[in-house]
Write a structure and sequence with these properties.
Layout (H helix, E strand, L loop, with lengths): L1 E2 L2 E2 L15 E2 L7 E5 L6 E3 L7 E2 L7 E4 L6 E3 L1 E10 L9 E8 L5 E3 L5 E5 L6 E3 L6 E3 L7 E5 L6 E3 L4 E8 L5 E11 L8 E2 L7 E5 L6 E3 L7 E2 L7 E4 L6 E3 L1 E10 L9 E10 L6 E3 L16 E4 L6 E3 L1 E10 L9 E8 L8 E2 L7 E5 L6 E3 L7 E2 L7 E4 L6 E3 L1 E10 L9 E8 L5 E3 L5 E5 L6 E3 L6 E3 L7 E5 L6 E3 L4 E8 L5 E11 L6 E3 L4 E4 L7 E2 L6 E4 L3 E3 L6 E2 L5 E2 L3 E10 L5 E11 L5
Parallel strand pairs: 4-10, 12-18, 20-26, 26-31, 33-39, 41-47, 49-56
Antiparallel strand pairs: 1-2, 3-6, 5-8, 7-9, 9-10, 11-14, 13-16, 15-17, 17-18, 19-22, 21-24, 23-25, 25-26, 27-29, 28-30, 30-31, 32-35, 34-37, 36-38, 38-39, 40-43, 42-45, 44-46, 46-47, 48-51, 50-54, 51-52, 53-55, 55-56
Protein name: HYR domain-containing protein
Keywords: Repeat, Signal
Length: about 600
Amino acid sequence: MTCCGFTFNLFLFTASTDNEPPVFINCAPPPTVEVDADPNSNGAVVVLPSIIATDNSQATPTITYSIQSGEFFTIGSSTVAVNAEDDAGNMAIPCVITVVVRDVTPPTIVDCPENAVIVSAPLGQTSATVVWTEPTATDNSGSTVTVSQTGGNVGDNFPVNVPTTITYTFTDAAQNPSVCSFIVFVTASTDNEPPVFINCAPPPTVTVDADPNSNGAVVVLPSIIATDNSQATPTITYSIQSGEFFTIGSSTVAVNAEDDAGNMAIPCVITVVVRVDADPNSNGAVVVLPSIIATDNSQATPTITYSIQSGEFFTIGSSTVAVNAEDDAGNMAIPCVITVVVRASTDNEPPVFINCAPPPTVEVDADPNSNGAVVVLPSIIATDNSQATPTITYSIQSGEFFTIGSSTVTVNAEDDAGNMAIPCVITVVVRDVTPPTIIDCPETVISVTAPLGQTSATVVWIEPTATDNSGSTVTVSQTGGNVGDNFPVNVPTTITYTFTDAAQNPSVCSFIVFVTGQNNAPVITCPGDVSVVSLANNVGNFASWDIPTCVDIEDGNIVLDQSACVPQSGGFFSNIGSSPVTCTCTDSGQLQSQCTFNVFVSGFNNL
């Protein structure tokens, strides 16, 4: 520029425009942060790396994180976007941090059995059914835990003396395993219980008269019976057999009972008394004593002496005779003692029961929640020709516990002369009158709602069970339907379980299954739009259409008439253009549905 002989240079300065975004300097490659989840938690607090960016303006860009460092991240992979913005508003391509929180905590097991589940097999059995509380598991991740099992299942039969390892393995979504392992061991039952005599209380006494002109008698012994916990009949043996010859006096017979396991009962001791009748009109009798024999190591026959000689006169009552044996060296054996019983010859008559014809029967109800009852027996009375009161004994005492069913009690009467009455047998009947006890009977009504649009529903419930005071098996019958059956809507169904014990006492669990339907409105379908041409002078025209259809879940097809629509079919439409028609359907539950269509009236064309 030239002016007044001078030349000027003109410079124009403009502001620079910054279009260049910031650049991350520690995001290549994009960082990954890997941490382990906290125990008992589904994630962890994560400290993110500090991301740095530079800018051509030399000013420090503003750094922002979509998720802040120190926040809680759940198990799995998450991303954090880091943005950088300079003062000119230029944004860097985001730096993406990948955060991986690893699940390293195995599932937590609940109710794992102890190291060994030990049960005893029933007596005589080689296996047993074993049950245990099955373990479960939860996981810190909140994900579903899968389980696998080896070795056997709850309720399986396991053999005696064979250890079986049961293993439950619980695995979470990260494949972390937890193991619950234990041993099932069935031991054989040992029978250490001896047999029990059932007719040896009190121990029996057999009293007989010596045969005429004899020093004894052949005696028939009572049949002794025993029972055993194994249910097998014990072996009964007698130290002296029934039908053997017993000499005058008192003798004992040991009766033993042995079960299959070798257990021996305490012997039942029968006392046998062989008596001699006194001579008529005398206070005693001449008694022939048994011949007692002894042997000696010298082979010589010992000298036998009686304190009272055979053939002597013995008075009424009991006497003893000592028999000694002495060898040539003067050695004396321990004396053999003979008991001689002489009874008055006039009393051979046994006592007579006065209240045992017919034999009495005692019937009582079992105590509730018990398999029997304490029974008070009737007092049995007997008389004797001697005018003395006979001794009364019971095989089972009054006030003892009798189990459910029929039992017998033998009552004996003996007079002073040893005469025994024919036993009086009392029959004791303990009745089971207590019905079974029901467990888990559902409430009075089980009410469920059918799925929307359905007219029935599947219904399940916990089935009831029952136990009985008698300990016997309870039978069950059921009517009305089963668990998992399909039941119709609005039809009450009575379900009845009847539990019956061995005495035919019933217990009933009854309830109603009722399925309610959801309120489903009917479905109405309108015809399509209707078009008509106006009469002359554009005054409108009549319009008709098909009656709409209507279907309902509960009612089925609902038949409609012209009154369903407003205005009605066949009516006059005076408006040129569109007029709406609304149709309504109502079901038996007063639920309604509507649909709408249009009637178009076009103008009259005079051409």
